[in-house]
Design brief:
The chain is mostly beta strands. Helix content is 4%, strand content 58%.
């Protein structure tokens, strides 16, 4: 797994792969290998051994400013997984019209906007039910709804155009 990690304002690229025996990890930080032995003592608390040094790391992720607590030090962090939806949203195209397409087959449950209505980035446009779960399709940018090509109750297939935002 490869993630972009920011610790105390310093950006790093971290690659983490499990190794044998369990608890051993192959870690590369900015391309440099780091050997580590890591075990979760309980959720949110990690016992970490790196280059003979032992660390007890407490994860404080339930706040708006997540941090790692190592001893008496509080170190803010941010993780960007390039595979995550949040990371892909940051790279959304903002010029020209954007087509919202169905990412899986399902049924349109609700349309939250009307043609011609202004929408904000990440605002819900419509809801598609797939595999008994309702998935809100959001606008990838600020704009105006140019076209809505579906209606509540319509069945959609992967790749079907649902709406166009300009």
């Amino acid at each position: 797994m490869k993630v972009n990690l920011e610790i105390d304002g310093q950006a790093r690229q971290v690659e983490i792969d499990p190794a044998d025996p369990p608890g051993q990890w192959r870690i590369r930080v900015d391309g440099e290998p780091v050997e580590a032995d890591a075990h979760f003592v309980r959720p949110g608390i990690l016992s970490l051994l790196i280059r003979g040094q032992s660390y007890r790391i407490v994860l404080d992720a339930d706040t708006s400013d997540p941090a790692l607590h190592i001893g008496s030090h509080r170190i803010p962090y941010r993780i960007d997984d390039p595979r995550s939806l949040r990371s892909r949203r940051g790279q959304a195209r903002t010029d020209g019209p954007v087509t919202l397409k169905a990412s899986m087959p399902g049924r349109v449950v609700r349309i939250s906007v009307e043609k011609g209505e202004a929408v904000a980035v990440h605002q819900g446009v419509l809801v598609v039910e797939a595999m008994k779960m309702q998935n809100e399709i959001k606008s990838p940018k600020d704009g105006r709804v140019v076209e809505i090509r579906v209606a509540p109750g319509d069945t959609v297939a992967v790749g079907d155009i649902l709406a166009i935002i300009e």
